[in-house]
Amino acid sequence: MDNPAAERDAALAKPTKAEQAIALGELLNAMPGFVAHLKTLRQGVVKSMHDEDGMSWEEVGQAIGQHRNRAQQIAKGVTGGKKKGAPPAETGETP
User: Fold this and answer.
1) Does any domain span residue 83?
2) Which of 12, 35, 50, 66 has its CA 20 to 30 A from that of 81?
């Protein structure tokens, strides 16, 4: 997926709503691969800020709007965990 906005526009330009829905579904299915590609690119950039540019993790974190620990995690490829404060989903089952 080289240009998501252009691909979205092309999907919405399909002649029928059914074709639009199919094309949009195909884009949604392609998103995980695109997201993984973006994460890999970001990882490389953040790592190079530290390794090649000589920035401390504190400086990298400040530059990208993250805590120094998160900047280091990004450079290592560690994905974010669960967001704090979100209650568990109710399943309707009783324990």
Assistant:
1) no
2) 50
Q: Indicate the SS3 state at residue 39.
A: helix
Domain that holds residue 58: 4-76
**Model confidence pLDDT, tens digit, residues 44-91:** 999 999 999 999 999 999 999 999 999 999 999 998 755 555 555 555
Structural domains counted in the chain = 1
- Amino acid in the structure at residue 27: L
**pLDDT for res 3:** 86
Taking the alpha carbons of 69, 70, 71, 75 in that order, is the dihedral positive or negative?
A: positive
- Residue 61 exposed, middle or buried by CB count within 10 Å (0-12, 13-18, 19+): buried
Evaluate whether residue 92 is within a structural domain: no
Is the residue at 84 inside a domain? no
